Amino acid sequence: xxxxxxxxxxxxxxDSWQRQLSIRALSKKYGVHRRLVREAxxxxxxxxxxxxxxTSPRMEPYKKTVDAWLRADLEAPRKQRHTVRRIVARxxxxxxxxxxxxxxxxxxxxxxxxxxxxxxxxVEAFVTQRNALGADAEVDFxxxxxxxxxxxxxxxxxxxxxxxxx
Length: 166
Hints:
Distance between the termini: 55 Å
Order of helices and strands: HHHHHHH
Number of helices: 7
Number of strands: 0
Structural class: mainly alpha
Mean pLDDT: 85
Low-confidence stretches: none
Radius of gyration: 30 Å
């Protein structure tokens, strides 16, 4: 039986409480170590997995140079900024070192955010709209004719009345 760790914790706790099973019996029933059963009984939420800190020794000599390029990109027009592919090519051209694309991609993805935050560049975001049903209307493409306050449709455009359902 393949259970998620949360489901396993729930079942272990339920069996311990309802059936009064011992730690050894729970361990045998679910095929896990007694240490995991004790952890499940002490906390309803499993501890999250630790993410290993990964370093890239091949990227180390070029980090300051790439950081400088990314800082310069903050001032450059959008179309003239460095892509990861261009950074890989530029390192190979200028330093004669072939660094794998994923190594550079992971470094640039993390550093772009950090450099932008340090420079105070506004973060791209969106605002989720919550419209009450029937209270708001949004029209994209097409022709809509609305009889507003008894005026014919041609009078709306002439007078510049904004069509909004309130």
